[in-house]
């Protein structure tokens, strides 16, 4: 490889790793519930605050991705904390986050400010949001990760039906 080729390969590798990717970033889609009272919970599993300003949360519906929420600039998510996007029918104490009309579709994707896929969950084999096999939908409960927010990039393994706990550690 030529020196220019080596430089380009190094730059491409660096650009590909800066934004992380599914399973790499400390920010996880940690819990989700669909509907007007639904929510999407992000969790910072890292040891330092993360700047999530400019990130988007997209829903996947009918094979199409749409922006559900855009996180305001300069939004920092402290280590171990949560940022929650809740539907307008949500009842209870509003955790730190944003209000939207509803959370619909067959999953969600968290994207950083450059549009890189950070983490996602899909609920059907046709959902562009899924990571490997989809998570099984739950009736009257949420889908959440374990208490450590482990991410194997296999939605069917990573998410289980749970008692909703937006803004709190999953049971």
Automatic annotation (TrEMBL):
<dbReference type="InterPro" id="IPR036415">
    <property type="entry name" value="Lamin_tail_dom_sf"/>
</dbReference>
<feature type="compositionally biased region" description="Polar residues">
    <location>
        <begin position="154"/>
        <end position="171"/>
    </location>
</feature>
<feature type="region of interest" description="Disordered">
    <location>
        <begin position="125"/>
        <end position="171"/>
    </location>
</feature>
<dbReference type="Pfam" id="PF00932">
    <property type="entry name" value="LTD"/>
</dbReference>
<feature type="domain" description="LTD">
    <location>
        <begin position="9"/>
        <end position="125"/>
    </location>
</feature>
<protein>
    <submittedName>
        <fullName>Lamin Tail Domain</fullName>
    </submittedName>
</protein>
<dbReference type="InterPro" id="IPR001322">
    <property type="entry name" value="Lamin_tail_dom"/>
</dbReference>
């Amino acid at each position: 490889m030529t020196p220019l080729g080596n430089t380009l390969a190094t730059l491409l590798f660096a650009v590909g790793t800066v934004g992380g990717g599914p399973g790499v970033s400390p920010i996880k889609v940690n819990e989700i519930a669909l509907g007007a009272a639904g929510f999407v919970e992000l969790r910072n599993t890292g040891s330092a605050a993360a700047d999530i300003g400019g990130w988007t949360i997209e829903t996947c519906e009918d094979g199409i991705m749409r922006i559900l929420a855009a996180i305001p600039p300069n939004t920092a998510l402290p280590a171990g904390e949560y940022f929650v996007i809740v539907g307008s029918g949500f009842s209870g104490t509003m955790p730190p986050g944003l209000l939207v009309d509803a959370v619909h579709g067959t999953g969600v994707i968290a994207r950083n400010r450059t549009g890189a896929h950070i983490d996602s969950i899909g609920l059907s084999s046709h959902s562009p949001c899924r990571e490997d096999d989809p998570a099984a939908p739950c009736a009257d409960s949420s889908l959440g990760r374990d208490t450590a927010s482990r991410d194997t990039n296999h939605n069917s393994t990573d998410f289980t039906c749970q008692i909703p706990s937006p803004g709190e550690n999953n049971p």
